[in-house]
Structures are given as C-alpha cells and as structure tokens.
Amino acid sequence: MSAAVREIVSVDEPMVITDDREGQVGKRYRTTMDALDSGTTDHTAALRAYVEAMPAHRNRAGGFWVAASDPLAAEQALTGTLSADQIRAAALLSDGASRLVDRFRLATWRQALGILDRGDPSELIRQVRGAEHSDPAGKRWPRGKVCDDSTAAHCLI
Question: How far is CA 62 from CA 29, 51, 56, 76, in A?
Fold first, then answer.
C-alpha cells in the first residue's frame, strides 16, 4: 500500500486529504502503458518498464513516500486539522480502495463515506472490484493492474 487517502469527516462536508505524489511521478512513465489493453504482452512489458522506473523516486524529495520500505517516510505524510467537535468519523483508504471515487468517479466522497458509515468496508471494496472487473482491459480506466490491493479502515466517533 503506497499512496493512501486519509479522510477526516466534518459535520458539513468531508475533508479529504489525498496523497497523489506517486501518481504524479508515475504520469511521466504511464503514457505507453495506459494506451495498451491490460493483460496484453505489450502492456506487460510497459508495466514492467513503469515498475522499474518508479523506485528511483521512492522516499526522495520530489518523489513519493512509502513507509513500508522506510518508516521515516511517515514524517512526509500529508495531514490536516479540525477541532474535535467537528469530527464524527475518520476513514483511511489505500489507493486501491479509493478508486471508486478518485479514479473511477462512480461515487462521491460523501457516498463512499455513507457505505462506510453503514459499517461495511467490504461493500466499498466490492464496488471497487465490480468496476475493475467491468473494465478488465483498462480501456475506460487505464491502470497498471486490473485489480489493486484495497484496504479501508473506518471509525465512527
């Protein structure tokens, strides 16, 4: 889990803090891969080139930060602040779980939080998987992997 979304929900609208630094760096290397159907030999080769290029930008200024490979990367986390009386819930989503909103645009943050508020992170991930499987070649939503790992944590306060 590299990029992650941290969500602090206020009474009015969600405060969404998205760390898209990996995606911004990756844009430089995705053009060829995104133009090809997932699962093809050419796509696999382009994905390999993308994967081989990305480590040069990991845990470096101007790149992206992955705490799994260096716990000191946590110091580079993007954060936000609300007063305690403004918070009713908090959610942490991996980039694989946030796809429903930020890549596929099949839900708003408010809708995604509604799913989590009903106590069902597995439903959020089920909807992500449904979208991924509906586009196995990555034509509608170009991506490196048909299915990305997905993690969702939610806490009602």
Answer: 15, 18, 11, 11
Ramachandran bin of 54, using left for φ above 0, alpha for ψ from -120 to 50, beta for the remaining angles: alpha
Give the model confidence (pLDDT) of 100-109 as tens digits: 999 999 999 9
d(CA 65, CA 139): 29
Question: Angle of helix 95-102 relative to helix 121-134, nearest 10 degrees?
Answer: 70
pTM of the model: 0.78
8 and 87 Cβ atoms separated by less than 8 Å: yes
Contacts by 34-43 with C-beta closer than 8 Å and gap 24+? 34/138, 34/142, 34/143, 35/142, 37/137, 37/138, 37/139, 38/136, 38/137, 38/138, 38/143, 38/145, 38/146, 39/136, 39/137, 39/146, 43/138
SS3 content of the chain, % helix, strand, coil (to 5): 45, 15, 40
Alpha helices in the chain (DSSP H): 21-34, 41-53, 95-102, 109-117, 121-134
